[in-house]
Specification:
The protein is an alpha/beta fold. The protein folds into 2 domains: 157 residues, HUPs (Rossmann fold, 3-Layer(aba) Sandwich), CATH 3.40.50.620; 126 residues, Elongation Factor Tu (Ef-tu), domain 3. Strands 1-4-3-2-5-6 form a 6-stranded parallel beta sheet. Strands 9-10-13-12-11-14 form a 6-stranded antiparallel barrel. The chain starts with a strand and ends in a 46-residue tail after the last helix. About 9% of the residues have low confidence.
Amino acid sequence: MQRWQGLDEVPAGWGRSVVTIGVFDGVHRGHQRDVRRAAELAAARGLPVAVVTFDPHPDEVVRPGSHPPFLSTARRRGELLAGLGVDAVLLLPFTLEFSRLGPDEFVQAVLVDRLHAARVVVGDNFRFGHRAAGDVALLSELGEKYDFTAEGVPLLADEGKTISSTGIRERLAAGDVAGAARDLGRPHRVEGVVVRGHRRGRSLGFPTANLETLPHTAIPADGVYAGWLASLDPAGHEEQRWPAAISIGTNPTFDGRERTVEAYALDRDDLDLYGAHVAVDFAARLRGTVRFDSVADLIAQMHRDVDAARELTAGGAARDGAASPGGAASPGGAGSPGGAASPGGAGSPGEQETRLRD
């Protein structure tokens, strides 16, 4: 798959293509349906599929300080899109100047002059151009002007609720990682670099990988979770993968203040991951967090956590495209080495000036 950072990187010889447009944060099931529809149209016409996406998130540009927690890194987005059969991803820097392009200017600069669009597939709530002046109907009109056809794909709903990146962020903020996995079509992933912490886990018999995550990462609510820990190579591909018990919080039993994400690879005390780039995939929430009266009580609960995590991950490692095991998230009852229960990431953003498939 080709990756282009900005319009200038689109090859001069790029021919006609089928294009789909959106932020695609998380590449959830609704996004996947859009992309598959574009791929279906492209296959019928013998054309490549190009995805137009944006960085940073448009909200951060039109309303500084409102950046929503991101569900996937730009690199991860590219990997997921490639897995859906996309031939090229055009990552456009979303600047204030770019946000002021009118609908016609956007279409001409991106879809016509660079990508030579023959078909354009978007969500049926797609808005584009300065102050969200364009919609699917206007896109179709501009298609008649510039020789392409536009199609709006109905939003995907599950149990009567539209699947959206905003809704997935809300699930994660509530600790509902199983619900987030259903909407994503795979477990939610948090990436980071393993850094040295207080090394308490090792002294307690459960050595953990302490992740330093990127700013604005969508981290689930404080608590203990079952999932997987994976080491990644420099390109972001998985090298090794282990079932894991994951703790998010401030370690209140030890009067901690800093919120951390820690993962214990089940039954492994021989791993040296310091400095490694790793990923944590969340399968199910085991329980919330409280402060323990003693370290002995904490260790006893950690053993129960590990047993529960082992049972939930016994069916094998859920990977991209596979829903997480374990059923709906449960708040549980007992505490954990993590911090007090919290709402997790920031809430959902409001309407953005250029609204894309959420």
